[in-house]
Amino acid sequence: MPVRVESFLAMTCSTSSRQDWDETAKEFRVISAEGLAELRDLHGESGDHQTIYWLMSTPFPLPSREYLIHRKLCKLPPLTSGAPRSYFKIDRALDPSAPEMQAAVARRAVRVSDYSQYSLIWEGVGGTTTVRTVYSE
User: Fold this and answer.
1) Total-model pTM
2) CA within 13 Å, CB half, 25
3) Is 33 left (phi over 0), alpha (psi -120 to 50) or beta?
4) Which fold has domain 5-136?
5) How many angstroms separate the Cα of 79 from the Cα of each of 76, 84, 106, 124?
6) Is 54 exposed, middle or buried (0-12, 13-18, 19+ CB in 10 A)?
7) Per-residue pLDDT of the chain (137 residues; tens, 9 = 90+)
């Protein structure tokens, strides 16, 4: 089923609707947002650079996983005239010295302090969305 690139980004970047479709998201919220909000229509926040809190459930007997992430979302300039729309999304764990990382870890959870995800998302053929991601944890 074709999904427009903007629809895909709105679904995956909106913290307000994440728990509607992601059963593992126990809690998912923006702590702060800053910078320009050129892509506000996609994520609904006041800035395209966000600090996000994500508490994710895992199968028993593993503890839940807690992430404190800095997210950047940007639209890339077209390489050629008529080139497909493309976006770049970066999610990285906050620096261990960041004030948010000093807060207590959620009960029965482990904080993930080494996490990164780099995604290139673009408009594919026939109204589809193509995503390429490099992930490390």
Assistant:
1) 0.86
2) 16
3) beta
4) Alpha-D-Glucose-1,6-Bisphosphate; Chain A, domain 4 (3.30.530)
5) 9, 9, 44, 15
6) buried
7) 688 899 999 988 888 888 888 899 999 999 999 999 999 998 999 999 999 999 999 999 999 999 999 999 999 998 888 888 899 999 999 999 999 999 999 999 999 999 999 999 998 888 889 999 999 99
